[in-house]
Amino acid sequence: MFKSKKNKKIQICIDGPAGSGKSVLGIFLAQKFNLLYIDSGIIYRAFVFFCLQNKINFNDLKKIKKNIKIFNVSFQSKKIIVINNNEAINIKNFYKSIINENLNFVTNNAFLRKKVVKILRAMSKNNDVVMVGRDIGSVVLKKAKIKIFLDASLKQRIQRRFKQKTLTNLNLDFKKVKENLIKRDNFDINRKNGALKHVKNEIYFDNSSLNVWQTNQKIVTLLLKKYKFLKIYND
Hints:
Blueprint lengths: L10 E5 L6 H12 L2 E4 H14 L7 H10 L2 E3 L4 E4 L3 E4 L6 H6 L1 H4 L2 H16 L3 E5 L2 H5 L5 E6 L2 H12 L8 H17 L12 E4 L5 H15 L9
Parallel strand pairs: 1-6, 1-7, 2-6, 7-8
Antiparallel strand pairs: 3-4, 4-5
Helix pairs in contact: 1-10, 8-9
């Protein structure tokens, strides 16, 4: 269990657009402060994986509702997720193209998002966590004291995403990456449920001119100065 020494539950929310570096920062803070790292998107991806494995049509709302009611996930390790207390899956399987292609079918679905929020809150109930997503501070963990909105210019985010994806796809088209990121931004900002937005008392941090190391160090320094209950666990 990732529990604070003073038995005060620590919840760090990190929201922001694609390519801003949320996951890298979240993993770093989890290691630094001994927190459980949770990427909210993994839960949605796990359900898409489950539907594809069980040949569930995403347009069959009746069947989707029936299966989301009994759907649950748990972390066996940092890289392994167990679905419905049965199948252990490496999370790398949740990032295949077929998952990406079907993700939007579930992320904008009200009753499905409601169930995922319950799963995420249950995960954070008995653990100190750093949770990454689009609506963590505004919906999932509304009462969390620490809320970070990590941002970067569109130009920088496109360049980062292109560099990241060329590691596995040398024939990647830059314009395609740009189009996909802009499309994702519009979807995240304008969707009816769980839209990406700013919240009161958030820490807004633009890292357009910073690299990963600089971003991580500046955020840690800022958090330690503002929240005295945070203690370095792994330096």
